Amino acid sequence: MLRKLQAELSTEAGAPDPRQRQYTTAVLLTVVVATLLGWLLSVPDSVVLAGLTTVFVLIVSEGHSLRADLRLFTRFAPPLTLVMAVGPLLENVPVLAGALVALVVFGTGMLPALGERYRTFGQTFAAATLVATTTGVGSDQPPGALAGCAVLGTLFALLLRVLIGSDDPTRAIRATVAHTLTTPGPGVVADAADAWRTDGGVSWLGQVLAGAARFRSAREVLLAQAQQHSGEEGRRLRELVTRSDEIAAELATAVRSRVCTGLNQLARARPEVLAGQSERELPEAVRGINEGLDRVRAAVLERDTSPTTAPAPGGRRQQVLGAARAHLSLRSALFRHALRCTLAVAAGMVIVLLLHTPTVSTLLLGLYAVLQPTARDSMSGALERTGGAVLGVVLLAVVIVLVPYAVLLVPVAIAAMLLRVRALREDYRLLLAALIGITVLVRVGDLERHSLVDATIGFAANTAIGAAIALAVGFVSYLVLPGSLGPDVAGTVRSTVWSLSELLRSVRASARGADVRSALRAAHVLALRRTQDLSGLPAMLDASDTADPVTEHGARAAATALDALRRDLATLAFRPASEKELALPALRAVDELLGGDARHSVPDIPGDQAPATELLAGSLVENGLHARAAIDETLGHDEPWKSYTISFVRPERLRIR
């Protein structure tokens, strides 16, 4: 434990990290001072809400470069502050409180359609609304105290974010971009590109991403060729991949560094030289690997900080409208799950308003933990989450009964949350579990000591009631809502590939100068819906007794690769026309891959002046290669890259709606 703490307070090189230590010190001192002030001024609940506001704001406005995080702060912090200040006041207006909770749960359940940042905000905002509106924490405090503490909590979150990033504002985005050189798999470049655009699109990082995308696509081609050969030739190709990874890892270290005055011998090496194959005939993919690594080397040394070409105007608006058209329908898995969550929360809200006791405060949080908003169309693991929520509340209540002044665990819990913001962002279950624990600790203070045993039973019973509502609504919805039963892996994968083919060919036509705006919008809507359905399929297979591990793994791989491919295509669709033309070779190559073409090569993609498009083109090829392998696995082909034909026809002829 001590070593882990020392590692977290140190840099990657092992030296003490002054900013991280200042952050930890600021958190601990502020929590201690705030706890003392809350006790002296008799406003402990307001201080708790201030601490939770800080946690919520940090979750949604931390993780990128300082500049990008400050933009996210101005966008997401005001609604969180408002709901934390106003939510406790709605206890006396039950109709308004119920309407607000239902509206927020449904709206935030639809936000994942807009991207990862909005998914994180939606989950956090829903949790903040439930805590502020339904738990009763702070409901006895004056409005001025609530508003002041919420604002102070937000300002403290801003202070912490500036403190941790003031000495090196771009460290987070450099680490994200460097991640693409060391982590294989679909979607890595797409995620990094999203973070890079959010940061403002600095040229040298875009050049690194473009080089990394070309390196990764050539690497996947080389691995595919190695799978086709056995014996000495296969080992030779895999050795080239291993040496390429060693060079890329060294370059990733240079990308993460704040300054770079030169590269060591390994970072400047060639994979064929390290593998002792420079005198032999090499596959064309090795040239692509070297070109990608050369691009990274030049970008790391030059570090051009000018911004890249902006996307075509109106692109973001079209993406938002397309997401709305795709998912505001019962045919959308995302819409069905948002509706399921809303119905369950509405039923739980009625019970909360009827009982109106401190022990009912964990009902909705327990309900929401069981529903797992990101699980979409599945109740997979719901029974385990139910048992975990109830057992956790029981154990905590026992601690409260046996330990005097257990309420002092509240500031400890808030301090731990502030020091583990990244873990809370990555695991929503952990956030909800922490909120349930804090709610129990705060609300038990409203009860007399002699009734703590009754309170233990009450908290556990109401948490179980919330979980039972979630299970009941989830089960009934599977019987009523369309598309919830009988996961069809092969059919879902085929329909997703058909929709992506339509989007890809629309983008190709647009790049050639054709006016296909209407067809492009329609294809974008269809691809959004199909990839969303496919993304929910692995969770449905988890709950199925008939699904085998191979099918589940193939469906998960296909969902990740095809969704990353869809994101690249949607982004490319709204780049300037001159840049889309540069990506035509990549679009043609991916179209052939999805159609079952067994050939695999890295197309020539010019684009020295357009890194944003070149990284998209390289990412398209890589994700197309991953998708090809996943389709083969999902549809039951034993031989990798076995050629077969998927007949692409227009979706309306297949009656895909």
Automatic annotation (TrEMBL):
It is a multi-pass membrane protein. The keyword Chloroplast does not apply. The chain crosses the membrane at residues 23-41, 47-65, 96-114, 145-164, 341-369, 389-416, 428-445, 457-481. InterPro entries: Memb_transporter_dom. It is found in: Membrane. It holds the Pfam family FUSC_2. GO terms for cellular component: membrane. It comes from the Bacteria. Its main location: membrane. The keyword Transmembrane applies. Residues 349-473 form the Integral membrane bound transporter domain. Keywords: Membrane, Transmembrane, Transmembrane helix. This is FUSC family protein. It comes from Actinopolyspora mortivallis.
